[in-house]
């Protein structure tokens, strides 16, 4: 039985166009768009008609950097795939790409299977996986080829966290060389973890234990140095590079320089670096621990350079790095020692709204909002035009967005499984009203009507900027 939905009267916004159009959805896909009020649109009939007059009709958000149920520092990220994907839907995101983790001494396959088991049957929206490579050896390198073939086309490495996820330059080079051959994309956490560990040890020896010292030891120069080194290693390997969670203006400068040289180098930043700063890390008492993440929040002056990078396309993607830990019982593991505070912030529910606020504030245009939050992440990770746009044949992942609604962000009202909000009390203009995932209503006029298990695993092609 075929099912049809028509969305009438909204302003359809994609990365390339803005048009007052009606959208016809058939069997979970976008079937057609036609200018509102035209005979073509008027002739459409459907079981379900959604009135989007005065609203935006946009593609569902694509968040390509989340960590549901991630083990870290003796605890686990507090959102499960069920709670995390439900919260994502509330925030207008209809696809996530999470990170499966290889444990040292184990295979990539074992890590990937474990993450499939966590996610399968539990997700409210569609999902894919990147693979964290913690142990580069001949077997791992062979496995990378197999994963690319089956739709896991990106691999994350860490220049940080010695003893946990850390890879040295030789291991990084080998993985990059392999990705140059198999079409995979290396994602890099670019911070000089070896040097940072020295600064952590010295700070603690001086009695500097408060959360704000987390930001002081993870220096912007050590992010810039690692970014530069990653770029050069990728250049040697002849491989593309995607640098995750860029927070420092010095790191943006390294990316801009590489891109000016024509290198296939890409950069992502996150809402926390655009809207929060070291002022938050320095909040009194132990409140600053809520804002401990890596790369860390930077002094406020870095924000202007990040916005500039997004406008000039030296940064292409805004993802959340959603990795929530509760203030009580998790973040407070680091009382008296900032290095024991689990690293990560909640944000999967806030990204689309915060970036719409950036449109309101004049940082970016409406189409750029959709580009950095939907279309580019989908292209970067091989999901376009199935995801990230509204065009015939695309999955009917659609958000009806009210650009005039006012909201105040709060842990009282959010849907993430965490006891605080990183944006508590922030006033925003714009709010998600209705969300469809593959044509099914997940949020209906601010009510959750989805269910665990609707979301399906999405295999990906290779990066579409390298074709």
Structural account:
By secondary structure, the chain is α/β, with parallel strands linked by helices. The protein is built from 14 helices and 18 strands. The longest helix is centred in the middle third of the chain and has 18 residues, at 220-237. The two termini are 38 Å apart. Strands 1, 2, 3, 4, 5, 16, 17 and 18 form an 8-stranded mixed beta sheet that branches.
Class from secondary-structure proportions = alpha/beta
What share of residues is helical?
Answer: 25-40%
If helices are DSSP runs of H or I spanning 4 or more residues, what is the number of helices? 14
Spatial separation of the terminal alpha carbons: 38 Å
Structure described in brief:
By secondary structure, this protein is α/β, with parallel strands linked by helices.
Topology (elements, then pairings):
Layout: E1 4-13, E2 18-26, E3 29-35, H1 39-42, E4 48-51, E5 56-59, E6 61-66, E7 71-72, E8 75-76, H2 81-90, E9 93-101, H3 108-119, E10 126-132, H4 138-149, E11 154-158, H5 169-182, E12 185-189, H6 193-205, H7 212-217, H8 220-237, E13 241-243, H9 249-260, E14 265-269, H10 271-275, H11 278-281, H12 301-312, E15 317-318, H13 351-360, H14 366-380, E16 398-408, E17 427-437, E18 440-443
Parallel strand pairs: 1-4, 1-5, 6-9, 9-10, 10-11, 11-12, 12-13, 13-14, 14-15
Antiparallel strand pairs: 1-2, 2-3, 5-16, 7-8, 16-17, 17-18
Which tags fit this structure?
467 residues; 18 strands; 31% helix
């Amino acid at each position: 039985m075929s099912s049809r939905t028509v969305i009438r009267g909204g302003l359809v916004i994609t990365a390339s166009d803005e048009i007052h159009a009606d959208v016809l959805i058939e069997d979970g896909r976008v079937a057609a768009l036609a200018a509102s009020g035209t005979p073509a649109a008027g002739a459409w009939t459907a079981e379900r008609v959604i009135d989007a007059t005065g609203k935006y009709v946009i593609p569902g958000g694509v968040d390509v950097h989340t960590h549901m149920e991630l083990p870290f520092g003796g605890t686990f990220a507090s959102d499960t795939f069920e709670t995390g994907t439900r919260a994502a839907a509330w925030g207008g995101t209809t696809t996530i790409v999470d990170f499966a983790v290889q444990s040292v001494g184990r295979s990539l396959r074992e890590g990937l299977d474990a993450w499939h088991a966590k996610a399968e049957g539990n997700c409210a929206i569609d999902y894919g996986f990147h693979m964290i490579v913690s142990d580069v050896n001949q077997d791992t390198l062979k496995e990378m080829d197999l994963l690319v073939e089956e739709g896991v086309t990106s691999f994350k490495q860490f220049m940080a966290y010695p003893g946990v996820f850390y890879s040295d330059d030789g291991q990084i080079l080998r993985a990059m060389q392999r990705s140059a051959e198999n079409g995979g994309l290396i994602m890099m956490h670019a911070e000089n973890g070896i040097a940072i560990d020295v600064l952590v040890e010295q700070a603690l020896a001086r009695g500097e234990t408060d959360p704000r010292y987390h930001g002081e030891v993870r220096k912007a120069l050590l992010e810039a140095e690692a970014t530069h080194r990653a770029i050069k290693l990728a250049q040697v390997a002849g491989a593309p590079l995607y640098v995750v969670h860029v927070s420092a203006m010095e790191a943006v400068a390294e990316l801009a320089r590489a891109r000016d040289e024509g290198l296939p180098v890409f950069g992502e930043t996150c809402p926390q670096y655009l809207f929060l700063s070291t002022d938050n890390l320095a909040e009194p008492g132990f409140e600053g621990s809520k804002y401990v993440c890596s790369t860390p929040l930077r002094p406020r002056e870095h924000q202007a350079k990040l916005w500039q990078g997004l406008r000039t396309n030296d940064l292409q993607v805004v993802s959340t790095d959603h990795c929530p830990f509760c203030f009580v019982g998790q973040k407070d593991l680091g009382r008296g020692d900032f290095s024991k505070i689990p690293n990560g912030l909640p944000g999967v529910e806030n990204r689309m709204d915060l970036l719409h606020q950036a449109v309101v504030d004049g940082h970016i245009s409406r189409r750029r909002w959709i580009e950095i939050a939907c279309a580019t992440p989908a292209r970067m990770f091989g999901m376009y035009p199935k995801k990230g746009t509204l065009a015939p044949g695309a999955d009917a992942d659609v958000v009806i967005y009210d650009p005039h609604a006012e909201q105040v962000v709060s842990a009282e009202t959010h849907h993430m499984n965490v006891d605080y909000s990183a944006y508590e009390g922030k006033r925003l203009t714009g709010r998600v009203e209705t969300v469809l995932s593959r044509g099914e209503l997940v949020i209906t006029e601010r009510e959750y009507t989805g269910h665990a298990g609707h979301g399906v695993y999405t295999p990906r092609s290779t990066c579409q900027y390298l074709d």
